[in-house]
Predict the 3D structure of the following.
Amino acid sequence: MDTLTSPHGGGQPLLHQKGAEIQAFGTLKQLPIGLGHDTRMYACQRLNRVLADTQILYSLYKKHHWLMRGATFYSLHLMLDKHAEAQLAIVDALAERVQSLGGVAVGDPRHVAELTAIPRPPDGVEPVPVMLSRLLDAHERILIDARDAAARISAEGDEGSTDLLVSEVIRTGEAQVWFLAEHLVDTPLVRG
């Protein structure tokens, strides 16, 4: 039988493959990056917590982006989408850092839900100020955890993870909090 008529030839995908897990979550593979096992393990654990929360924050941003209401709909709709894009970039950076340390990044949404510290919102639509407050609460939880993680990881000598937490998670989060909080100032759109 030649390769063109063979079930494995001619470009036919090998579908329905199964196999054993090759690296369990919470384990490390050895990489020559100049950091010890315990330092890398601790950093992966902390980064995965921030990663899980950041994935939830990204999802909250998208949900609230879709569900905006009222006179400020357009500006909030655009701003929340822009914030979501920035959070998605942070998700990717955190996941790649975990992988570069030899760990396994949390990625399955069901696993993320088990790890996150951010409370689940109702499935329906909330008033706009409540949705914005929910985003601010999620940011604050992430910022508190990221600051603590950055300090402890830095003490372990992992400046790469510390830099990621400070330059991307914390700085982006602080700026986004500022923009969100300003939308909760009680100022009428029109004065009578």
